[in-house]
Design brief:
The protein is an all-alpha fold. It is built from eleven helices and no strands.
Length: about 220
């Protein structure tokens, strides 16, 4: 079976808002400005990369998107609500839909997706967001839903498919192995000691090798 990965990374530069909003009409109810909302969500990512979470404000997002603050407030009453909506779009980048046809291949791609995201400008803000989550339970819950829950659901699916194929899987508790693999990736990505940014290629090779060593021989 061929590998399936569905990317949804938000653009970070050259955010464009057309002069006249494209609308899609739903009945009953009000029209939904799909393109306008996409542009605002892209602007959130841009401001987050350039200013960090502490510098993320509705006025800065509105300026980056080329709209009024009132336009943003009509969609999100607070900075936090606006940011949570944008953050939920990260789910498919952190944990895309994967089916390579083998358990080892699926795990390889799960690892690769996480590394690919964390080395992007947007992904490099992730460590700061973890710090925010410690102080804000709702923030932490959204981050958990975006980052951890989908990865565990994917691993469950990988194991179910492996069982049907009669493949060997991890020799230790799968949740423990997944936590170990992803936490190692995140620790490196956070660059806690102020060293060079994470080397994506070497990290990918090493974490994949570690995962393979934990598949029952």
């Amino acid at each position: 079976m061929s590998q399936t990965i569905v990317p949804h990374t938000l653009p970070l530069k050259n955010v464009h808002v057309p002069a006249r909003d494209r609308t899609a009409t739903r009945a009953p109810g009000r029209p939904v400005n799909l393109r306008l909302k996409d542009n605002i969500l892209a602007a959130i990512a841009q401001v987050l990369v350039e200013e960090g979470y502490q510098g993320l404000t509705i006025s800065r997002v509105a300026k980056a998107a080329g709209v009024s603050t009132a336009t943003v407030y009509r969609r999100w009453p607070t900075k936090q609500a606006m940011f949570f909506d944008a953050m939920r779009l990260w789910r498919d980048d952190l944990t895309p839909q994967i089916d390579t046809g083998s358990f080892a291949g699926d795990v390889d791609e799960l690892i690769a997706a996480r590394i690919r995201f964390l080395v992007t400008p947007l992904g490099r803000t992730y460590g700061t967001l973890l710090g925010e989550a410690v102080h804000d339970p709702e923030f932490g819950q959204v981050l958990w839903e975006v980052s951890v829950v989908p990865a565990r659901a994917q691993m469950t699916l990988f194991l179910e498919r492996a069982s049907r194929r009669g493949e060997k899987v991890f020799c230790q508790n799968p949740d423990t192995v997944l936590d170990m693999l992803l936490s190692t990736i995140h620790f490196r990505a956070m660059n806690l000691l102020g060293r060079e940014p994470m080397d994506a290629d070497s990290t990918l090779k090493e974490i994949r090798s570690l995962a393979r060593s934990l598949i029952a021989g």
